[in-house]
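Notes continue from the previous slide.

Worked example: a multi-chain complex. Inputs as given:
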Amino acid sequence: MAAKLLVARDLYKSYRRHKIVIPVLQGLDLDVETGEFLCLVGASGSGKTTLLHVLGTLDRPDSGRILLEGKRIDNVPLAERDRLRNQVFGFIFQFYHLLPELNVLENVLMPQMIRSSVLSWWWHRREARRRALALLERVGLSHRLRHRPRELSGGEMQRAAIARALLSRPRLLLADEPTGNLDARTGSEIVRLLRDLNREEGLTIIMVTHNPEIARQADRCVCMTEGRVEPISLGELHALSS
Amino acid sequence: MYKLLLSWRYLLTRYLALASIVSVMLGVATLVVVNSVMGGFAEKLRNRLRGLQAHVMIDARSADGFCNLDYHMQRVREILGDRLEAMSPVIEGFAMVEYRRREYTNFETGSRDDPIHGVITGESPPVVRTVRLLGIDPASRSQTSEFAQFLQNPENRRDPRRCFELRGQAAEHHRRHFLRSFGPSPWNAFPPPNPLAAAEEEATRPPPTDPVELPPHLVRPFGAVVGHGIATFRKPDAKSTDTDRDIPIIYPGDEIVITTVSRTQLEGHAGTRGHPRPVSATFVVTDIFKSEMSEIDSNIIYIDLADMQRLRTMENCATSLQLKIRGYDDYTPEQKRQLLAELARHFDETFFAIASWEQKQGPLLAAIAIERGLLNVLLFLIIAVAGFGILAIFFMIVVEKMRDIGILKALGASNSGVMGIFLTYGLALGLVGAGLGTVLGLAITVNINEIERGLSAMTGNDVFDRSVYYFDKIPTVIDPLNILFLNLGALAIAVGASVLPALRAALLHPVQCLRYE
């Protein structure tokens, strides 16, 4: 049995819209093992994205605990959370979220730039560049280094976003519907890329998706209902989508 | 690092922000120009005032001045010793001057103001005006102040000691005038029978072969150096570019009558106390004085101290002693005070006023300094307006960049880092605006006279009316320290205006930013 990378226990989170309190996470428990490719499915608005944000320290749970390798990360100070996002978690999003002013290479280098001061960036820029180029090669974008995001196709943008997420060698990749905005073929290419990264480099991935075809490629699937996650089998997955 | 990169990219891609760059630029340019021009005015005025005055002045409180001039001068020499570089006694008073404007027509050239070769074709009734009359010793005067360099006759500039003697063209003009007055000229009769015919006759008459012996009182007449503003008048609608905008009234060689008053404490008969009496004498104008300070040029007539003493019966007296102190400009204010105190020990407060030139001209210089400070405050408000422009534009950019802010935070950027992006951006806007503004301001300052000429030619009106101001050119002084402070001020405003939007960006919740569409 592999070690638990991330453990969430009894998470509660609710949003307040005007005077109405909307409960999103209601006593959620989740275990993620190292090297696992976990797929998270669920109806729209069931709280999948919120769960990813809470797990990735972008948001705080109202109560409950999140442990990264046995250490609590839900109540650490702001600076430590910034560091975790920068070095431990990698994010990819449905709408790619590249910075439009920067070219592909600069976008990929962004996590390293955020981490470094001007001086240390100057010292380590070659090394960072080498790594960024290797990652772009890996995702198949080495011919698009100097292009701006708006000059890329959706699939290319998502690959750039994956390369950016991988730059800091994250322990856990949090992917929020990475194929949601792509056609089926491009989407499956992206998923294959993630699958390969998971298999070859042992990258732990939590991916949110609506697509059962894509979900099938994961090691394990969980379904989010009523603020909790439950294991879901392939049969149920098909039933859910149909 | 990403702060620099992003703010640089924002600077290059957000054209909206160029508006605020332009407003910062214009504000800084205006400030640079105004400061340079006002600094130039102050500097030039200061130099002029300085040039026209000695370092220290000992003025008698009485209009009659003080007597025993030699003794007082000797005392000053004893008190100051080596520190005294030069000393010049002066008698100052008010006077009336009476003159006639004559038209000298040269029929060959058609010129109507040629006193050497022309003939008198017209004469105004006598004109009387009040002036300040200064009896000076030209030799020592030109040592204590820059008296000599403002004389118009180059010979007198070289050797100001003889500036009250008739020399050169002035002498020739005076000789001819004398001949005309005493020779068989028709305009000695009144009214002249036919001035044109007479003028033609004189023009055709051969010049006298041997110089006429002048009567003794005319060999060395009373000489007077007249201010340019008295000797000329300005055409009312003259443009600054006109070369003939000053029309001469008095030429060197002309005779003028100066009336002043004799000493007040004149002895009456049998030892009773007398009254001041008007005294007058005819002077020959030997030169024109032009300092470009209209207040001085249009008010002052200089005559020789000896003549003044004779005229006002003030032999061996003076109203003022002008001292030039060696190395005065290097003195500390304390040393200056001490010097005045030493002099005050001999020259009693009751009878003498001792003042340095800064004290005398202080109010004027202070007024300029105050004006300059006030203008700076007002013009900085322009940059403050630009600052509010930056504030508004930045709030819009923050909203526009909401998603990017969310991404940066998801990638681990701290709140202060996000704030830093916008502060750096504000600083960059300020830097570019202030830099361009400084360049523009300096370009305008350096070429301000050409620009002014161009504007005057275009509008047909004088932008910089020389008859109002003291100078022929717009003076400018570029003070690097001042420009540095202007730029720092502009930068502070630009960064200050971006604090609020930057703070807002920093405090945005990353999840809300990422959900923002």
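Summary box: The interface with chain B takes residues 50, 53, 56, 58-59, 78-79, 82-87, 91, 93, 97-102, 106, 110-111, 113-118, 121, 164, 168 of chain A (CB under 8 Å). Chain A has one domain: 36-59+81-241.
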